[in-house]
Design goal:
The complex is a heterodimer of chains A (998) and B (90). With 998 residues, chain A is an alpha+beta fold. In chain A, helix 5 packs parallel to helix 11 and helix 18 crosses helix 23. The radius of gyration of chain A is 38 Å and the shape is elongated. Helix content of chain B is 9%, strand content 37%. Chain B contains 1 helix and 6 strands, in the order βββαβββ. The relative contact order of chain B is 0.27. The chains are: A alpha+beta (998), B mainly beta (90).
């Protein structure tokens, strides 16, 4: 019985193209243009899942974004996606989907036992039951609840799909392409405004696709088609379907999720799966329409009970019958429209109208068609477990409190209509204080907060003529404000059947002796009785009731349940709905995939990877790289089977005996120019800078205003008013902002300009006793003698036709130089160094050897300058000027900073001279003292000293000044290590600093 | 995401800027005696205001200029922006 519920002709689907798909392992067929929901209903499938709490059978309730039940696990192109709404998922060839929240299968679900235990699972059940004993939570309660609850399963595989972000600006963003969206978009576009028209469904037109109306002497759908066709051809218009505007944020920023490929079997090459649009709109027109409200009665969650508007949509858009014996239960005229559609397609519906004697064109038409209508009648309860089989119905008294005799009538679906709820989410997110409109029993937007205007049904206007008039006018007036154009298009005439007032009735009383569950929130299994319990237990605020009962939570966010929940609370509390107020509407309006939110910023793309110009050389020479901020730096160059420890030791040793070369391109560089540069540096650094001569470099330390060391580095005076500053790799960007802050805001009178030049220079450090010889080879014409280029000297030279800056500075503590050339010559420089250093046994060295060299010399780096230490702590107090003022100086007077036993950097050597000391370990006096063992200091950096051939560490130690020679213990509870150590000077090699000056 | 008027570049989105704190704090002059209290107020003490607040932003991915922005911390409404060298009028 393939597609036995599909009508012969009706619908907008493409009957020329059949599509095969699988649901719960079974093969089905549908047509192009179907949703998974419409195709399943066409095949007579109504059991799609199990409910969240009671595991009751679940069918379809809506036909789009309003669907609370039909959540499936989707499989597409070897990927899986949880929590997809079957009513929104378009059918594609090969689609596979499974039910969620049921085990072992949707037909036989073990969890359904909860349904029979439901008396034990009232509101707040989890809060009340799983409190005690406390120790049970992790081991027993939580795993049980996690297994029993939850919806789909997220994939743990890497998502290979691409997601994109797009930033867009427009004059008007129009959210929703129903009559008001189309009318306002058309009027604004014709008036020259740049507009974006967004529709969440694949088809444009909104209610015009299903309502029997005429606009401009054509059907509503044809009018919508013609408007869209014309808009698409206009250069000032962007028209997007499958695009949900889901969030309205500050300053008229809206975010829209476009499903680019979800409707295709496979994403096309170079296409994203989804695209997130950040749209900054000058004005926003909200034409998001309305969602039909359910009526509440016994077992109203049985599969086959659905919104009457959804039943109509399945008929008119997909040519699908939701049942052959429909019962229409309504409190207004909308239900009649659905009934009339059934009748036109040869099906005989029964209408139960809660009203006594409604008079309108629609009611008359239904009567004339011979439809069986029962006035003052209600559905008391649906009967049937996995599908509606019949309904208990009864007449109801005029005051709606008393039921007549209960009869049972056969039916296979119950289409409910409890009038309409405007979709006000976007307006509310914008900050609009909504107001209650009594005539429609619902909230509508009040005074606009941002530049937003709500139109049509979203604004509580359900009359087509009025909607078109106000929307054409709004499109024109608002665009006129922006474009100053005055092209007004005429408003087409429209025809729709006149309807009459709805009945405020929404909840059927329970018959005597019956305890039917009457559901308010279909996604979260919240029934009338749950809310009653919450109120009985003292919850008053609607926000609290929501959280206690879970009413209006999860992916559904109360789209169908919100107002009925409020009605109930106000009835019990004897208040009116506006006094109770509604819960906050938060973005996103519908669930958005994590992929779309993250966009392209995955893996290495979270930040751009920066590579030095010599990167390719490093790669070719077996470099093992390490992340240094966003830079990739060689950590060591692997020879044969060497490991990190062996390689770095070899490299460091070669620096101490021969010469090594290290890529220092990543160092931050800032170019400083202007007549007041010396004065500026003098204020930025702790030491004196006014008398630094041209051609000389100086090491400097800069503080934050709170006295903590911010960064260190050397700055060189290139010429009278030109300095070249270096910063650490990590702090480069912060230092630049810091300098700009003082120049622009604090001392604008200083004539100084700063600009980053990190990317402009490639740098190589050559270090070791043979580095002078190497430098001479590189610059044969330059006097590189100790007199010609003394320690901290600077000259410029010609490196085989390339201009080079030569600094005699040293981080390794050896005789060393740094050569800078323009970036594009970096590789040339590097290869020349390697080539001319060959006879001197040159070896490249990585960051690991670099660390070893600086640690055993006692030079501080990032692990000591960690945002917690002052100059004294790093033995840099000699660089703190007593004579001049500078940034942060005043803070150094603080009591803690001047304490006698202030922490200070020291060296640490294990007594056995063998055991390596883990970084981050604590220093304690007594390894066996009771916990917490008083901490005297911490290990900031560790290495294997190549000079002494034993482990050596730096530590920041309390009263470090007086601790040299003491024996302490290093403790690392993480590594379960206790190591007896001796405290030594932090300058473990060449304490007088003779080598750098040699 | 806020939409901030940069006096040098025009309207730009917040992700081009970095926040810099209270714009009304004045750094004490160099080489002048400053009491502990005044220095603490400059370095540490900030009012966490609800309502109108002059604050610093740096147009870090744009012109790199620091600017002063008057913003309502509760509603995010921006009333005024100034260049670094323009005085805040009270």
């Amino acid at each position: 019985m393939s597609q036995s519920f599909r009508l012969e002709h009706a619908g907008l689907i493409n009957r020329d193209k059949k599509i095969s798909f699988k649901f719960n392992g079974k093969n089905y067929q549908g047509y192009e243009g179907d949703t998974l929901a419409s195709a399943l209903i066409a095949n007579g499938v109504h059991l799609i899942g199990r409910s969240f709490k009671y595991h009751r059978p679940r069918g379809f309730f809506g036909a789009g974004v309003d669907e609370p039940y039909a959540i499936v696990q989707l499989y597409r192109n070897n990927e899986t996606e949880p929590n997809v709404k079957a009513t929104e998922q378009e059918l594609f060839e090969g689609l596979e989907a499974n039910s969620v929240n049921c085990w072992p299968s949707v037909n036989f679900d073990v969890g359904a036992i909860n349904n029979f235990l439901k008396i034990f699972l009232p509101a707040g059940f989890y809060y009340k039951t799983f409190m005690w004993p406390k120790s049970f939570w992790y081991k027993i309660y939580e795993p049980f609840i996690r297994k029993a609850a939850g919806l789909g399963v997220a994939s743990i595989k890497h998502d290979k799909e691409r997601y994109e972000h797009k930033y867009e600006y427009c004059d008007l963003l129009i959210a929703g392409s129903g009559p008001s969206g189309l009318a306002s978009a058309y009027a604004a576009a014709k008036n020259g405004a740049r507009i974006i028209l967004a529709e969440d469904k694949p088809r444009f037109g909104g209610s015009l696709l299903t309502n029997e109306v005429n606009i401009g002497n054509q059907s509503g759908k044809d009018w919508a088609d013609s408007i869209i066709t014309e808009l698409k051809q206009m250069p000032n218009v962007v028209v997007k379907n499958r695009s949900q505007v889901f969030g309205y944020y500050d300053h008229n920023m809206l975010v829209m999720s476009e499903k680019v490929s979800d409707h295709l079997p496979k994403t096309k090459k170079f296409h994203p799966k989804q695209r997130l649009w950040y749209i900054r709109a000058k004005e926003v027109l909200i034409s998001s329409g309305s969602i039909e409200r359910p009526l509440v009665f016994g077992n109203n969650d049985t599969p086959g009970v659905m919104l009457s508007s959804a039943a109509k949509e399945y008929l008119k858009v997909y040519g699908v019958l939701v049942g052959r014996k429909p019962l229409i239960f309504t409190n207004n005229d909308s239900g009649y429209e659905t009934a009339i559609e059934f009748k036109k397609n040869g099906i005989d519906p029964v209408i139960l109208d809660t009203r006594k004697n409604p008079i309108s064109e629609i009611v008359t038409e239904a009567k004339n068609l011979g439809i069986n209508i029962k006035f003052s009648y209600v559905v008391v309860a649906a009967q049937g477990y996995k599908k509606v089989k019949s309904a208990d119905i009864a007449s109801i008294s005029d005051d709606k409190n008393y039921l007549g005799k209960i009869e049972n009538i056969k039916c296979d679906c119950i289409c409910v209509s409890g009038f309409w709820t405007p979709t006000i989410h976007l307006a509310s997110q914008s900050g609009n204080k909504t107001k209650f409109k009594k005539e429609i029993d619902a909230f509508i937007p009040g005074v606009s907060k941002q530049n937003e205007t709500t139109l049509g049904a979203a604004n509580g206007v359900f009359d087509l003529e009025e909607t078109l008039k106000s929307s054409f006018n709004a499109g024109y007036e608002i665009s006129k404000k922006i474009t100053n154009n005055d092209n007004r298009v005429s408003i087409p005439n429209s025809v729709e059947k006149q309807s009459t007032e709805h009945d405020k009735f929404w909840c059927v009383p329970l018959p005597k002796g019956k305890h039917y569950k009457r559901f308010l929130d279909f996604q979260n299994d919240v029934a009338v009785s749950d809310v009653e319990i919450a109120l009985k237990e003292g919850y008053r605020s609607i926000e609290h009731v929501k959280r206690y009962t879970t009413l209006g939570m999860a992916t559904d966010q109360g789209k169908t349940s919100n107002l009925n929940g409020l009605q109930l609370v106000s009835n019990i509390e004897n208040k009116v709905v506006p006094e109770v107020g509604h819960t906050t509407f938060r973005p996103p309006y519908t669930p958005i995939t994590i992929g779309a939110i993250v966009g392209r910023e995955v893996g290495k793309h979270t930040k751009p990877t920066r590579k030095s110009p010599m990167h390719t050389w490093h790669e070719k020479n077996n470099a093992v790289f390490v992340d240094a901020g966003v830079w990739l730096r060689p950590r060591y160059y692997k020879k044969g089977n060497e490991n990190l420890f062996e390689a770095s030791k070899r490299e460091a040793k070669n620096v101490r005996t021969n010469v090594g070369v290290c890529d220092v391109t990543t160092l931050g560089k800032i170019d400083i120019k202007g007549p007041d540069s010396a004065e500026f540096l003098n204020r930025v650094y702790t030491n004196a800078w006014l008398k630094l001569p041209v051609g000389k470099a100086r090491y400097g330390v800069m503080l934050r205003e709170d006295g903590i060391v911010m960064d260190d580095g050397t700055t060189t005076r290139i010429s009278e008013n030109h300095y070249h500053m270096t910063t650490t790799t990590a702090q480069a960007a912060n230092v630049l902002s810091h300098l700009e802050y003082y120049l622009q805001l604090v001392w604008p009178e200083l004539r100084v300009n700063v600009v980053s030049s990190t990317e402009q220079w490639a740098g190589a450090a050559i270090a070791g006793p043979k580095s002078r010889e190497l430098l001479q080879n590189l610059f044969p014409k330059v006097d590189v003698s100790n007199e010609g280029l003394p320690f901290m000297g600077y000259i410029e030279g010609d490196l085989f036709g390339v201009n080079a800056k030569i600094f005699r500075i040293s981080f390794s503590g050896e005789l060393a130089y740094e050569i800078n050339v323009e970036s594009n010559n970096g590789n040339f420089m590097w290869e020349k160094i390697i080539e001319l250093g060959k006879d001197l046994n040159i070896q490249p060295y990585g960051t690991e050897a670099l660390s070893t060299l600086r640690i055993e010399m006692g030079h501080v780096a990032g692990s000591e300058l960690d945002g917690r230490t002052i100059p004294y702590d790093n033995s840099l107090e000699g660089l703190v000027s007593k004579k001049k003022d500078f940034i942060g100086k005043r803070s150094l007077n603080r009591k803690a900073f001047t304490a006698e036993n202030r922490q200070k950097i020291v060296g640490v050597v294990p007594i056995d001279k063998k055991t390596s000391i883990p970084e981050g370990s604590h220093l304690v006096k007594d390894a066996k003292a009771a916990l917490p063992n008083p901490k005297l200091g911490y290990i900031s950096a560790s290495c294997w000293s190549v000079e002494h051939d034993n482990p050596f560490s730096l530590a920041i130690l309390k009263d470090g000044k007086n601790m040299i020679g003491q024996k302490l213990f290093v403790m690392s509870p993480l590594k379960n290590k206790v190591i007896p150590v001796e405290i030594v000077s932090s300058h473990y090699v060449d304490p007088k600093g003779e080598r750098v000056r040699s | 995401m806020l939409y901030i008027f940069c006096p040098h570049c025009g309207m730009r989105s917040q992700n081009e800027f970095s926040y810099g704190g209270d714009a009304t704090v004045k750094r004490p002059e160099l080489n002048k005696e400053v009491s502990d209290k005044d220095w603490d107020n400059f370095v540490y003490n900030r009012k966490s205001l609800r309502g109108k607040h002059w604050e610093l932003w740096q147009h870090i991915s744009g012109c790199r200029q620091w600017i002063k922005v008057e913003r309502d911390t509760a509603t995010h409404e921006i009333f005024n922006t100034l260049k670094a060298d323009e005085e805040i009028s009270k």
